[in-house]
Amino acid sequence: MRAEPPAWAPGPAQAAALLEEAADLLVLHRDFAAAVERCEAGCDSLGPGPGPGPGHGPESFAEVKCSLCVVGIQALAEMNRWREVLSWVLQYYHVPEHLPPKVLELCILLYSKVREPQVMLEAGGSWLRAQANQGLPEFGSLLELYLAQVLLPLGRFEGAEELVRGCAVCDSEQQLRFLATIGESRRRWTQREETRSAAEEQQEPATETLLGVLSQKLLTMLTLLRRALRSMSNHFYLLPYKKMLLATFLLYLVVVRLDPASPTSLPFIYKLVQLFRQAWAAVLSPIHRPPIRD
What we know:
Structural class: mainly alpha
Oligomer: single chain
Distance between the termini: 110 Å
């Protein structure tokens, strides 16, 4: 077994050793919590800037720190702690503009996969608008990823067009390609909205029609019942009228096969109950206690 490194000794060498441990814990042992701890310790050991010494210049410092964050992101995701990812990496980079391209890419892909792209809306936009990042070789691919995974799924078409047109490093061919993608996404979005609106508009008259048919049937049944009660009032006056009508109403619901668990049946049942109450009052009003014969 590999010997433990000195307890959190500062410097890139210590961070590199902790990175190796974290990778082993993540891949071989699947001890995700311990892997996150090693990544945090490695980032803390690096301090605010690259450590001194040969072979440990700014590039090496940045690579080790980025790799520690990549392993940490994967470990957090494995523990279903993806909500913490963005805030976790920002505690080491402080602002989104300083995130390495690989870290930003992982964050965008992660939050897109869990269907929470809005988490990266502000962070991704800040990174892409930073002048220092627009000269990086990864800028074009990250812009395309941000459009496809964040802005367009959220329907931010105007913001997407503004971002593309304001991109100084994109040539005219790239801008046209991005704008065409945005236009196609906007068209599909509009079609979905129109289809959804049309479906809702068709559902309303269908609901009203069905309710009207059910109401008419219920009133017809209650009218027939009222006539029967009138003709048999001398014999059945002592029967509980309310229970009889309630049983009739419940039987009617069974006959028309309303599903109480369905959300669309709730307004039917509510309105039918109101109709039932009105009909109940109308049925009872003309029925009087028969005279007692000697």
